[in-house]
UniProtKB/TrEMBL annotation:
This is PA2169 family four-helix-bundle protein. The lineage of its organism: Bacteria, Pseudomonadati, Pseudomonadota, Gammaproteobacteria, Oceanospirillales. InterPro entries: CHP02284, DUF2383, Ferritin-like, UCP029477. It holds the Pfam family DUF2383. It comes from Alloalcanivorax marinus. Residues 6-115 form the DUF2383 domain. NCBIfam families: PA2169 family four-helix-bundle protein (TIGR02284).
Length: 151
């Protein structure tokens, strides 16, 4: 894979990380349960670190990283606010949206890992993918616990 294509692929992952960062930040503000808020704040910081690490790789490829997340992510965060405002089960609704966001992020990383990436880039993307899998599993467990709690 040439440097331009690698930089473009990394830029998509940066947008994904920034979408995750902003989404978890928004979720932490909306969630009522303090322990769920803390987890979202931790994941927000993890996504920010991921974006910073990917940004360094984009510069190393001679590319320019994006300034923010994706338009889709911004729209989704607005929907999160609306849905949470309309739902009696706010935490459950927010966690369901977080789980969907993590599922979408997983697909982006899986798509990237199917490419022929330079070794240092592949190592970073694989490490971030493993962190993402852990986040996704924890978000799913939180969502399921909230479903049981609100029944």
């Amino acid at each position: 894979m040439n440097r331009d294509k690698t930089a473009k692929l990394l830029n998509r992952l940066i947008e994904t990380c920034r979408d995750g960062e902003a989404g978890f930040q928004r979720s932490a503000r909306i969630l009522r349960d303090a322990k769920w808020r803390l987890v979202c704040e931790e994941f927000e910081q993890s996504c920010a670190r991921g974006a910073r690490d990917l940004t360094q790789k984009v510069y190393a490829q001679g590319g320019r990283p994006p300034r923010g997340g994706s338009a889709r992510g911004a729209l989704h965060r607005r929907w999160l606010s609306v849905k949470a405002g309309l739902s009696e089960k706010t935490d459950q609704a927010v966690l369901e949206l977080c789980e969907r966001d993590e599922q979408r992020a997983k697909r982006e990383y899986q798509r990237a890992l199917r490419e022929n990436l330079p070794p240092q880039v592949r190592d970073l993307v694989e490490r971030q993918y493993r962190v993402l899998l852990d986040h996704h599993q924890k978000v799913r467990a939180m969502r399921d616990a909230e479903r049981v709690r609100t029944v």
